[in-house]
User: Fold these one by one.
Assistant:
Number 1:
Amino acid sequence: MATFTKVASLDDVPEGQGIGLEIGRKRIVLFNIEGELLAVEATCAQHGAPLERGVIHEGNLQCPWHGAATPGGVGRAAATGRGPGSPAA
Ligand code: FES
């Protein structure tokens, strides 16, 4: 059964930028894309680039090393500060 842990509020993540977070032994990055949070693993699956240095381009997260794009819908949290029950609110 999935459990949810509040790790940040929308106000903690500047628009168009990401912040790195440690949750237990896992490192993630939260991006604020036009008021919605995108949560991804902190390292790129291709060759391990630090994705908190990635950029948002046309709604997709682009890897800082080789430019692979993660579609904005993948890993996007349902939260936009709508309430404490939201996964990343
Ligand atoms: S390390 Fe991310 S695209 Fe190569």
Number 2:
Amino acid sequence: MPLPRPAPAPDATKRDLALEVHRRLCAEYGCPVLYFHALSPLDELVSSLLSHRTKNADSARAFASLRAAFEDWAAVRDAPVAEVERAIAGVTWPEAKAPALQRTLRALTERQGLLDLSHLAGMSVPEATAWLASLPGVGPKTAAAVLSFSTLRGRALPVDSHHHRVAARLGLIPKSLAVGPSHAVLEALLPEDWDAQGFYDHHQMLMRHGQRCCFFRGPACGRCVLRDLCPEGQSRLGTTPA
Ligand code: SF4
């Protein structure tokens, strides 16, 4: 299976910026961050597929409802799609997510002969990312979530919409770069000697900053701890970068 093409080598300025952003946000919000759950890779895959554009509490409820309604993931795969849709009714677009989830589970079964992802533990993160991303419905964010958030605890960097917005405003990525390809670019900025916790913390810090300060509409640049580093903040505040 071809590995994804590596991102171009980042310039040192962007690496330094990413590290300074990480340092300041860790001081602001606190690092290390506790992992929010410890699901198996397959459970995490299902959970991640449900969570797209859905609040954490709603996708957690839908995941619990799915587990309660069906004996195992094979039963979810083989159930009438309307039953799956009913079980995940609390997420956004259940009518699309139910058949998509079944498609992913069927493809995994065809490929592995069973519903199991434990073989990913024996792969490097780039290999495991490529393997996961070749499943239907699995993109870079879902693959990174499976590798980072599950019990695999891999050195992978999920990029959600908050993380992506903050990174673009800071100039870590071009504003025109979509979320999918931004994964490789942002991951390449992180030090090679960081462990999985460092990657996880970085994701959590950028995401939290997007949720608590760098809002989609009306970012609170005046109280932002990154404002002297941020071209967007400087422009909004009408000041000159330090
Ligand atoms: S200065 Fe403004 S735009 Fe820049 S990161 Fe902070 S809140 Fe976001």
